[in-house]
Amino acid sequence: MSYKTILSLWLSLVLLGAEDVEAKVNGILGHSVTFQVKSSLPFKSISWSKIASSKSEIIAVVTSGEPCGRLVPDPAYEKRVTIPEDCKGLNISHLRKEDAGRFRAVIIPSDAEKVDESFDLQIFRRLLDSEMTVTCTPDAAGNGTWKLNCSTGTWEDGVKFSWTSAVQSRDLPHWNSSILTSQDLNLNVTCAAENPVSKASTTVSLKQVCAGQTKNFYRLPLLTLLCLSKVGSLLLLGCLGLILVVKSRKAVGGERLPVRFLPEEPIPTSQGQSPQLSQPHIGRN
């Protein structure tokens, strides 16, 4: 047997026995994605499964033929799975966030050992310029330092942010925030966002996003002081009123006349009447 023949057989065995050839696949929320196996061997069937929490659930079984045979036992994929004409792929439409994860295709060739191929699906949302927002928080010292926050919406998985302006800025660790110093409210700032499937950006001026915040920010301490002064005045009036009430009660109690009881002596009466007791004597000491 020649050297080339031995090498060819060895490569064939390696390819047939290969397992977990994982491919990275990016999907867009609400759109479609297609997994395509690389094996060129004739096959009897391909079993497609979704691996979640160390458990494998079969979502479709495809058999070779014209047309392809298809069985979709998982209700979550029944109306969303289609098979291409060559029967070697799996198309999933109307992608959901929970579709992200690992998919496995177990290929059963006609006259060889099975081959496994895996696909790591990640789902991202398409970024839109119209959904980009920038908010501003002024610095407490009022020295023209601003903190800008950029957002692409409620779901920002895999999004990277960057800032562009005419002045030097300092991006914070989570990247969607930036701190810059400028006395010119007409300064334009651009926030750009990017994920593996899309890009978006928005440009705003400091006057547009920070001017109103400045008024509210410096008005806040004054409102707080006014509220505290009102509360303090009410408390003071309440304390004074309580003191006056206590003093008035003491004054009334000090002028009260003492009551002395004299010994009981019968009061002479006319014949035929019962004697009467003397009444208590009230007088000053």
Furnish the topology, listing elements before pairings:
Elements: H1 3-17, E1 21-28, E2 33-36, E3 43-52, E4 55-63, E5 69-71, E6 81-82, E7 89-92, E8 101-109, E9 115-124, E10 133-138, E11 145-151, E12 160-165, E13 169-171, E14 177-181, E15 188-195, E16 198-205, H2 206-254, E17 259-260, E18 281-282
Parallel strand pairs: 1-9
Antiparallel strand pairs: 2-7, 3-4, 3-8, 4-5, 6-7, 8-9, 10-11, 11-14, 12-15, 13-14, 15-16, 17-18
Give your account of this protein's structure.
The protein is an alpha+beta fold. Among the domains are: 102 residues, Sandwich (Immunoglobulin-like); 82 residues, Immunoglobulins (Immunoglobulin-like, Sandwich). Helices cover 22% and strands 37% of the residues. It has two helices and 18 strands. The longest helix is centred in the last third of the chain and has 49 residues. The termini are far apart. The N terminus and C terminus are likely disordered.
Strand fraction: 35-45%
Order of helices and strands: HEEEEEEEEEEEEEEEEHEE
* Main pleated-sheet profile: 6 strands, mixed
Can you name the CATH architecture of the domain at 23-124? Sandwich
CATH superfamily placement of the domain at 23-124: Immunoglobulins
Looking at the structure, the CATH topology of the domain at 23-124 is Immunoglobulin-like
Give the overall shape.
Answer: elongated
Range of helix content = 10-25%
Number of strands: 18
- The first-level CATH class name of the domain at 23-124: Mainly Beta
Tally of helical runs: 2
